[in-house]
Amino acid sequence: MAEPRILTYREAVLEALFEEMRTNADVVIIGEDVGAAGGVFKQTEGLFAEFGASRVIDTPISEPGAFGMAVGAAMSGLRPVFEVMFGDFMTLVMDQLVNQAAKVRYMSNGTAKVPLVLRTTMGLGANLGPQHSQSFHAWAAHVPGLKIAIPATPADAKGLWKAAIRDDDPVLIFEDRLLYTMKGEIPAGDHVVPLGQARTVREGRDVTLVAIGRMVEFAEAAAKLLAAEGIEAEIIDPRTLVPFDTETVIASVKRTHRALVIDGAPRAYGVTGEIAATIAEEAFDWLDAPVGRLAGANTPVPFSRSLEKLARPDAETIARQVRAMLG
Amino acid sequence: MAKPRKPVAKPKSHAKSHAKAHTKAPARKPRVDQDVGVYLTIYRQMALIRAFEEAVRSLATSGLVPGLVHLCSGQEATNVGVISALEPRDMIASHHRGHGHCLARGAEPNLLMAEILGKAAGYGGGRSGSMHVIDLEHGNLGTNGIVGGGIPLACGAALTARARNSGAVSVCFFGDGALNQGLLHECMNMAAIWKLAVVFVCEDNGYGEFTAIDDVTAGDSIPARGEVFGIPSRTVDGMDVLAVRKAALAAVTKARKGGGPSFLICNTWRFGGHHVGDKQDYKDDAEVKAWRAKDPLPRFAAWLAKHHGISARKLSHIDQTVAAQVASAVDAGRRAPEPDSNALDRHVYG
Asked: CB of A55 within 8 Å of any CB in chain B?
């Protein structure tokens, strides 16, 4: 047996990119500072040196036009990875994403496709303020035709990235930038995590925690606190919002009879409401308590260290809500 | 809702810029090549587009076309003039007034008509309609419901051509309304810095929806909007199919040789309104008369007769052939079934 390979989340994504770009010449990466600069978070470091300017394409700060070009490139045969430097800048590509990319397969009666990956960030916690901290995964998930992946670990990052690049639909990958330094074991070989398969992070009998992105890390910390009190939480990471693995979530809730859905983005009209409603519809008779929701504040993301902490769930607030549900 | 409509301001200056194009173009014969077969194909395509659009107008007026439909009657010379300069491997992106581009590129009239009527046999299975016809088989990235929306798609196809070294050229068609979309300027900048094989074609018909171009467009030069990026830019008489074709051939050849993008502004005029049913009270009689006199079809017919001795009978035969083709498309489209209910959620994902 070989030694387990430990990589950071950022290294895992880069490994997936290198592997896919080496095996398929149609894979190109397009974005601001992705080339010689190696990415604002060093997330594309080394690609430019190996693949050159024709496949690692630095764009001006022109997100709508550059993303639209990625869509046209995808329609005509390439498999572009397009980087939106901060999730907040998703607003700038929304027209081409929503009105073009998401609908091409449908509008063409299946004769055209848009095999592209849009990579962006999510999550607050770095004191970057109201325009550099937002999480727009729920927005995107509302648009038919888009797939949404949110890797929570280095292994999932690599596996979901490889699946996304090989997928024939537009796939959005949201990465919490505070996970980039997280370390984890990477399975050997061609590690692909199919889109639409949730991961059971931890088994437990008392409550199901459905956690999105970095919330998985907080849910694990909360589960440790709760375990010390005799409460065993099961944690499910859906890994992709679209397609959504309803089966795994519902099976878990039917065992634990309680569910708490956790997301870092604003609560109103967000992911937690959609998942909670699905649980209520499909597992109502098994529930011993109303489905709980824990999400970000319905406010812009504040800048100050003290206020920013209040704007999203953490291990403490998760544990507190579980105690209330069981109490 | 009500937008100010200035019936007089526009035609004047539009006519002015049009006249300018004329004085710029030398008076020599605009002969591009000697092959009369090419010319007859060009005539046939223009006649097909006109017949097709007038059939759609008639269907829409009778309430048989769901939704809104935008016709390109009057703009046939820009459609066919540019597309006749392309090869099968090339790509175009069209806009909301795009039936002519589809047909000139080789779309099946029956499938296009079926789509306009929302029928299962259409290009989008009846789910896309007139404004979203995608036909990759004929190198058409699609008509587009977003003003300027097709511009980056065509540039993206040029990125693919560059990556694969395929030698394909992309053309993006847009109206004067898209001149004020930021997307155009972003794409021109990128096409210029990357020397993409793209031809930007502005079909300037004088109106963005119901508003005259001069009311919403600053500066006195449209070519300047390309020149600022170092893109060779020129204005041509968009009612003269040979002038358009000649300019397009030059731009396409340059792009194919690695010479980068060009910007072509074709002065043209839509014979109808923004969509069927638009009363067009923003146009005045003098404007209508002046532009109708420039109708690209009789103009080209006269040229064919004068320079190639093509008889009126021969052209009339072509007219009848395309009329029959269109009648058959209308008939087939009307009789074609609606999409079945399973088509609702088919092809949302692969």
From this structure: yes
User: What is the three-class DSSP state of B224?
Assistant: helix
Q: Which CATH number fits domain A199-326: 3.20.20.80, 3.40.50.450, 3.40.50.920, 3.40.50.2300?
A: 3.40.50.920
Torsions phi, psi for B300 (to 5 deg)? -70, -35
Q: What is the mean pLDDT of residues B140-151?
A: 97
Q: Where in chain A is the domain with CATH 3.40.50.970?
A: 5-186
Token pair in block for residue A52: 């050159």
Residues 6+ apart with CB under 8 A from A40: A32, A33, A85
Out of A60, A76, A105, the one facing B160 most closely (by C-beta) is A76
Looking at beta carbons, which residues of chain A come within 8 Å of B157?
Answer: 72-73, 75-76
What CATH class does A5-186 carry?
alpha beta
Contact B238, B78 (CB under 8 A): yes
Kindly provide the ipTM of the predicted complex, given to two decimals.
0.95
pLDDT of residue A1: 57
Rounded to 5°, angle at Cα A13 from A144 and A308:
75
Tell if the CB–CB gap between B190 and A65 is shorter than 8 Å: yes
Cβ–Cβ under 8 Å, residues A125 and A308: yes
Measured CA to CA, the distance from residue A56 to residue A36 in angstroms comes to 9
Strands B233-237 and B262-267: parallel
Report the residue from B124, B146, B163 with minimal CB separation from A54.
Answer: B163
Query: Domains, chain B, ranges and CATH?
Result: 33-333 (3.40.50.970)
SS (H, E, C) chain A: CCCCEEEEHHHHHHHHHHHHHHHCCCEEEEECCCCCCCCCCCCCCCHHHHHCCCCEEECCCCHHHHHHHHHHHHHCCCEEEEECCCHHHHHHHHHHHHHHHHHHHHHCCCCCCCCCEEEEEECCCCCCCCCCCCCCHHHHHCCCCCEEECCCCHHHHHHHHHHHHHCCCCEEEEEEHHHCCCEEEECCCCCCCCCCCCEEEECCCCEEEEECCCHHHHHHHHHHHHHCCCCCEEEEECCEEECCCHHHHHHHHHHHCCEEEEEEEECCCCHHHHHHHHHHHHHHHHCCCCCEEEEECCCCCCCCHHHHHHCCCCHHHHHHHHHHHHC
Instruction: Please choose, from the candidates A43, A23, A24, A26, the residue with its C-alpha nearest in 3D space to the C-alpha of residue A35.
Output: A43
Q: Within chain A, which residues score under 50 in pLDDT?
A: none
pLDDT for the residue B215: 87
Per-residue pLDDT tens over the stretch A177-224: 999 999 999 999 999 999 999 999 999 999 999 999 999 999 999 999
Residues from chain A contacting residue B159 (CB–CB below 8 Å): 28, 57, 69, 72-73, 78
Residue with tokens 């029959």: B324
